[in-house]
Amino acid sequence: MIAAAALMVSIAAYGQGQFVFNNRIPPDINAKFQLSSDTGTTSSLAGSAYTVQLLGGKPGTPTAQLTQLATTDFRTGAAAGYVNPITVTVPGVTGVGADTKALVLLRVFSGTGTTGAGLTDFGPFTVDVAAAPATPPNMALGTSALIVNNVPEPTTLALGALGLGALLAIRRRK
User: For strand 33-36 and strand 146-149, is the pairing parallel, antiparallel, or unpaired?
Assistant: First the structure.
C-alpha cells in the first residue's frame, strides 16, 4: 500500500515543472532577506518568525490569479536571512518543450502562517523549470538583498492618526 502511494506521488510530480527555491548558492545566488527599520538599519529574517509563500502559474497569469505553490521559513544563527531550501512543483507547467518557464511571486509574512496581508511581495519572477526526473534548476535571485519594509507598530499608527486629526481640526478652525 505504501509503495503504491509513493508511486502515485512520483507519477503526479513526473511531467510537472519543478525548480529549487534557495536564496544562497554561491557565487551566483546570494539574496539575503533583510528587515529594514525606521532608523535605516537592517537585520536578517530568522527562524519561524517569518514565512515566505511562493505563488505561481504559467507566464502571463495575472498576479491575483497565481496559486500557492509552497511555503518555507528561514535559517537561524549565521545563516539568518536565508531560507530553508525547497523543491517546488508548478502545476500546469510541464517543464518540457516550450513549456519550461513559470511565473513566481514571493510573499513574506510575519509568523508561521500565510493569512492576512503579507509584509511585502517580490516579483513576479520568470523562473526556468524542468520536468522530473531531470534535476530542477535553481530560481535565479541574483546577489542583491531582498529588503522587507518594517510594518509600523500600532502605537505609531495611532500617533500618526492623532497628528492627522489635529491638523484637520486646526484647518477646520481657519
Answer: parallel
Tell me how far CA of residue 158 lies from CA of 45, 46, 150, 162, 164, in angstroms: 26, 28, 16, 6, 10
What pLDDT does 59 receive? Answer: 92
pLDDT number for residue 112: 86
Tell which residue, 75, 49, 47, 74, has the closest CA to residue 150: 49
| 51-88: pLDDT as tens digits | 999 999 999 999 999 999 999 999 999 999 999 999 99
Question: Where would I find the beta strands (DSSP E) of 3-119?
Answer: 17-21, 24-25, 29-30, 33-36, 42-44, 50-57, 67-72, 86-90, 101-110
Distances, alpha carbon 8 to alpha carbons 5, 11, 14, 69, 95, in Å? 5, 5, 10, 19, 19
User: Residue 91: CB partners within 8 Å, gap ≥ 6?
Assistant: 16, 67
Supply 160's cell numbers. 500618526
Question: For residue range 13-34, what is the model confidence (pLDDT) as tens digits?
Answer: 455 899 999 999 988 898 999 8
How far from 26 is each of 78, 140, 162, CA to CA, in Å? 15, 11, 48
Specify the 3-state DSSP secondary structure of 144: coil
